[in-house]
Amino acid sequence: MDSPLLTRLFRQLFSRRACQSLRSHSELPSRIQGTTRHGQSRSLSSTGRRRDAAGDSKRNESHWQQRTDLFPLDMSEEYQKYPMVTADQLRGRRERPRRVKMLARDFIEDSLYNPSYGYFSKQVVIFTPGEPFAFNSIEDEPEFHRLLGQRYTEFEDKLDATASNESRQLWHTPTELFRPYYGEAIARYLITNYKLSQYPYHDLIIYEMGAGNGTLMLNILDYIRSTEPSVYHRTKFKIIEISSSLAKLQASQLLRSANSRGHASKVEIINKSIFEWDTVVPSPCFFLAMEVFDNFAHDAIRYDPLTEEPLQGTVLIDNAGEFHEFYTPLIDPVASRFLRVRHAATSGHYPLPLPQSKILRKLRARMPFMANLSDPEYIPTRLMQFFDILGRCFPSHRLLTSDFHDLPDTIKGVNAPVVQTRYQRRTVPVTTPYVHQGYFDILFPTDFNVMELMYRAITGKLTRVLSHEEFLRRWAYVEETETKNGENPLLSWYKNASVLTTV
């Protein structure tokens, strides 16, 4: 049902001038290192006009409409009538909702994780390069990039031979690109810190959230089994996976070969959302969250430029399936708590989408056609709730997480996401998170300066933040990923990522 609809939508997306002017990407998905570049952006105005009722009924949901902020449609009547729903209430729905309104974080959560149409539930395919790259035999990084491109093409050609899909959402992770070396570096960190603080009084208990194909799990267990048999004997690996399809894939990985089948007694795959966790785990444990924070739902906040009053974003979905933004000064308890905790944890030092000069704000407010609200700020309310669960249900945990502190092609705003899809093997960024649910990756950077302090405030634990390269120089055998000319993709890729650890 979705395929013909999506094909028409994407064809119209490419035919629009606004979308054609976006930078065209290479064939490789863009969850990789890069300098910060911004796509097209737009501003908000609350003035509007009524939509013609007859025109509304004739609109097809696949029609891509480039919306304007100077003369937005007046949907205030619908806003009063439509019910407010949450992502949890939509989990049982098989079709995308219409004639409802929802907080921005619920829209994002529903778009990414709805079991019937969510991006991670139905669309995502994680690239597996096959045999590990022999980096010592590769001339330099350009050759590695060329080889990677070849393997991407071969991988997707095989998928198309089985079932062609022009809108396949394919991306990779450092675990897959640098297998097994990346996973072995994580394993060395775990072994060393386990033996320093827990061995022999406690088992090595590892929780991993968002385990993808299960490759990191296997690399870690393989390394511990081959280098530390006594530690392996006491190792328990538990995956928490919200996606049923990925949970099945992870289970199949354990049965792939005799070597991996040997780990079956060590592994438990828990198919549920971490946000549904309600069991206290008192034992010391390590909690892995590698490239997970970037897809946590965020709330959208704009500020009154004169009073600095925050307003929370709501998305209205009309009866044609199109989206309209509203902002209200009534902040819900979750977002309100985030703003309070952030202010206390950082002593008020964090970026806002407002000019520091109040005089400048007043002058801008008087200019014609200027927006009456600031640019949006996207606050990671789900990440705060994750920290709550760690502190409440895993009181003796040690967190190891890696994620992007900076991303290319973000939309306009503070801590704004990259919103992108793939069509005909090309990555296509767009300029709003309010897009056809389930077909777009909504990927946020993490402000580690702020979130480290919030993690400390919520859990009471001490932390350390390192760059991706600094962490790997400490724990990886970097000579294994060095090319002939001395370059090292393991260290030079993912320059825009940081690693946070509990100490």
TrEMBL record:
Q: Which GO terms describe its biological process?
A: methylation
Taken from the record, one Pfam family name reads Methyltransf_28
Q: Which EC class is the enzyme in?
A: transferase
Which region is the signal sequence? none
Q: Where do Basic and acidic residues bias regions lie? A: 49-66
Q: Which InterPro entries match?
A: NDUFAF7, NDUFAF7_sf, SAM-dependent_MTases_sf
What EC designation does it have?
A: 2.1.1.320
Ranges of biased composition (kind: Polar residues): 32-47
Function noted in UniProt:
Arginine methyltransferase involved in the assembly or stability of mitochondrial NADH:ubiquinone oxidoreductase complex (complex I).
The record's similarity note reads: Belongs to the NDUFAF7 family.
| Name of the featured protein | Protein arginine methyltransferase NDUFAF7
Q: Which organism is it from?
A: Hyaloscypha bicolor E
Q: What is the lineage of its organism?
A: Eukaryota, Fungi, Dikarya, Ascomycota, Pezizomycotina
